[in-house]
């Protein structure tokens, strides 16, 4: 903002100009008085000669100031200096004076030039300064108006911008005040300079008086004439300066009025600013309340959306399972109905035969009774010729009655036999179930002794996303399952048949699958390293098998496994066992390990696979979550949801929610029994592998292509590991991929491993399903060795020592180590 001249500074300027004018007027009066006295003394009897004749308009004689005592003394001294002369001499002197006044001498010209230059310089300086100050006033006023208009407009737009503008305006006013103070000091300096110049002029005038007193009369009159001319010029300049000063005074008044208006306007603006600040605070409070409500509503909507998605997934799974159950039920109903109809036809034939025989016997009975009477009468009338015939018919009746009785007994015995057979069938079914359980246990024992990887195969039901095959009323599956014989066959012209440890059909639920893998979960409680991994093409149901959806029957292996472990811990707590559970959850995406339970999702953080002093591989820097036995259900749900939110999932041409990474859920189980002096440590690794896919079907490009290549490469490395294990190669390439390197403890023979191969029932995915079955068949032939149980004896330790070792109780979770990140269920809920 440009600097503005204050009224006080203008008043000081006016006082300075008035002082200068008064000083010049005093000097002029002094010169006029001396000139008039000298003229009266020199003329004598010539009173008609006056200074008006010499000076024209008589500006010096019309001076309004009377002569002072000093002037009288000067006149007396001049009478002593200039003696009386004759009239001729006086005429000659007057002519010389007139001629001298008409002609400029060099000294007078020099003095006049000096005075003129000084006067012009002062006048130019003041005019320039006044003009600059006037321009500055106008510019400042214009800028002030523009700033006020801008401030009003901006204040109407946004309160915060108005406050910033007001702050800038206050700063500008402060700067203006500083500039005005600086200008005031500059004007004071200018006033000092003017006073110095006036002192210099006074000194020159004093010097001129000295020279005039010591010089001749001719020089004195020349100087007097020059001073008179200068006096007229100064008088004119003074009048002009007075006019300028009056104009400036008027301008000062106008500026004062404008300044007062601006002050008033500024006060109003300050009050408006205060009211705006109050309104702003009120609006900020309302905005904060609205933001809080918005966040709550947003959280509710997000939770509702998550619930809707979970319900949608669960509904889809339930619908698919319902369709599969309906299809299986219809097939069984058709089979049972055919058997029932066949049996009814046979029973109807037997019943009809018996009814015909019974009717014949009933019809034969009365005729046989009438025939003996007639025979007797005839024999009485005709004689004894027909006696032999009457003896034969009673014998036939007895045989028929006996036959009927035999048939009735046969019917009753057949019915009783059918009832006994039905009961026997039930007993046989129970024996078959018990035998199946025994066979499974014996098979598991044999597999453990052989060290083979157990392979279960699950065929998912049809989904609506399968296209025309899924939308058909009775879709035909490309794969047939024989759950009793544990074989699976492709439904094509040249079928392929495979035999595995367990086959799950389309109608088998999550509960049925978990019942067969629960023995593995129990092994983790016993101190074994257990690994269950789901393998299959994209969209085959791996994530549904491992994680599931919802809180009811659609839950997967992970939440069911934790529930089973918690129940086992609670049961074993009553006999002296105490357990401590720790969970980690991470994924391998493009050969990069990511923590799925982290908060900040820092891409720069690296998680490398290290080996501890016991030779076990582990992933460093992962978030470890303690399982709270009092809130385990909520905590597990939040862990699974948080991992699902952080996991890399995207849409492809083959699956709308395709997992683009391998996820590994690791549960570390530590238990001790103080009475038995025993400590066990088991691990449970639940792996959801990314889906294998063919680029010709997925049409992946860009980042999806890179992901598919990384997935296929890691799965190929896994196949190389199983191939080396099947051939019993001395070198197994675990380090070819981070997936195989992370699964090395489960694949190296120290623990138990189960492969869950998931298949799609569509003909479009038959080639990928056939590849998965061939790979699963190769895996089932791998021998890892006898698993080792991690159990050892330990010295008696107190509770404090147990906390120091990181082992806690199933009833309450102990303090954790400093390297771990502790997340309570509430904290996890906030993260979600």
From TrEMBL:
GO terms for cellular component: microtubule. Residues 362-380 have a biased composition (Polar residues). Residues 127-314 form a coiled coil. GO terms for molecular function: ATP binding; microtubule binding; microtubule motor activity. Residues 67-78 have a biased composition (Low complexity). Transmembrane segments: none annotated. ATP binds at residues 536-543. One of its GO terms (biological process) is microtubule-based movement. This is Kinesin-like protein. The lineage of its organism: Eukaryota, Sar, Stramenopiles, Oomycota, Peronosporomycetes.
